[in-house]
Design brief:
It is globular and about 65 Å long. By secondary structure, it is of the alpha+beta class. Strands 1-4-5-10-9-8-6-7 form an eight-stranded mixed beta sheet, sandwiched between helices. The chain has a two-stranded antiparallel ribbon with strand order 2-3. The protein has helices at about 5-15, 20-30, 30-45, 50-60, 70-85, 130-140, 190-215, 230-245, 290-295, 310-315, and strands at about 90, 100, 120-125, 150-160, 175-185, 215-225, 250-255, 265-275, 275-285, 300-305.
């Protein structure tokens, strides 16, 4: 963050009497030394905290309060989504609650201040698809897996926590559960990866909402920059899906905003459950493996849906 972007930061540096403190800590101190310094600072801070003050911190911190979702129904929903994905060859992965520092901001267009940064070179997971992308890149780099002859497919459920101010926006939570899919493969021409990977993930979501909620889904596709012919990519994907009997409704929306997060295609998942309309998730192609591995042929499709808002609907549908 630049000093001029934050009045509070400017005030803190003025009170410390050193306007270069951020540069000193970020650029002149090795990461391991900075970690040790901050650990000692937090240790001294906690020594000064009384039990009563600890309770006040709990009461005033929105990130630490329990979720409102019924935990038994939520856990059942997690199991159901992972089983359905497994039936479509997506291997379930239990991710860590922590990710390497910069997992969102380094490879995606996300400001680090929207993530809860932590010590020991970590941050609290704010997007499991980023961590799955790192997992895929590690498997490929180490030779433990190969995506040349067949795709790598992974699924997970994870509780995310994000630090941005939410205001009074309805349905926005400081921490929430998601179900995620990632598909990794190689560019073999003619959009072969893109068509097959999208179809496979669409089939998972189609099966998920039909089996659990007895509802259909609409997938809205939108062209994004990053491919030479994004509109042609979408046409091929829609045609391929319909040729292979996809039952989800596929529609195309004109691109009306600049979105550098996804490359070539972004899709949104909509459904109606018990008369309630939900825009429940999204996905698209990203260039993260290319940047992590410096390999031009790497391809990755990511997607996720929110689970907390579906918990009451699952309970009602099961009656």
């Amino acid at each position: 963050m630049k000093k001029e972007d934050s009045p509070n930061l400017h005030r803190i540096m003025r009170e410390l009497g050193h306007d270069k403190v951020i540069e000193m800590l970020a650029e002149r101190i090795p990461a391991s030394d900075l970690n040790g310094l901050l650990m000692e600072v937090f240790r001294e801070k906690t020594k000064q905290t009384t039990p009563k003050e600890l309770l006040k911190k709990y009461e005033s911190n929105r990130f630490v309060h329990p979720a409102e979702a019924d935990p038994l129904t939520l856990k059942q929903l997690e199991l159901d989504t992972l089983r359905i994905a497994s039936e479509q060859s997506f291997s379930a992965v239990q991710l860590s609650p922590a990710a390497p520092l910069g997992s969102c901001s380094v490879i995606a267009t996300v400001d680090q201040n929207k993530v809860i940064s932590a010590l020991r070179g970590t941050e609290i997971v704010a997007d499991a698809t980023n961590l799955l992308a790192l997992h895929v890149a590690h498997l490929l780099k180490s030779g433990k897996a190969d995506n040349e002859s067949s795709f790598l497919r992974f699924s997970t459920t994870h509780r995310h926590i994000r630090a941005q101010s939410l205001g009074n926006a309805p349905g926005m939570l400081p921490h929430f559960h998601v179900f995620c899919l990632v598909t990794s493969g190689k560019d073999n021409g003619s959009y072969s990866f893109e068509k097959q990977a999208f179809l496979e993930q669409a089939i998972v979501y189609q099966a998920l909402f039909r089996k659990l909620f007895r509802s259909d889904i609409e997938i809205v596709l939108c062209a994004r920059q990053g491919y030479k012919d994004s509109d042609g990519l979408i046409e091929r994907i829609v045609e391929y899906g319909r040729e292979h009997g996809i039952q989800a409704t596929l529609s195309v929306s004109p691109s009306e905003e600049n979105n550098e997060y996804y490359k070539g295609l972004q899709f949104t998942i909509k459904t109606v459950i018990n008369g309630n309309n939900y825009t429940i998730g999204d996905g698209g192609f990203v260039d993260w493996p290319n940047r992590l591995l410096s390999r031009r042929r790497e391809r990755l499709l990511i997607s996720a849906i929110g689970l907390d808002r579906l918990v009451p609907e699952l309970a009602r549908t099961s009656l």
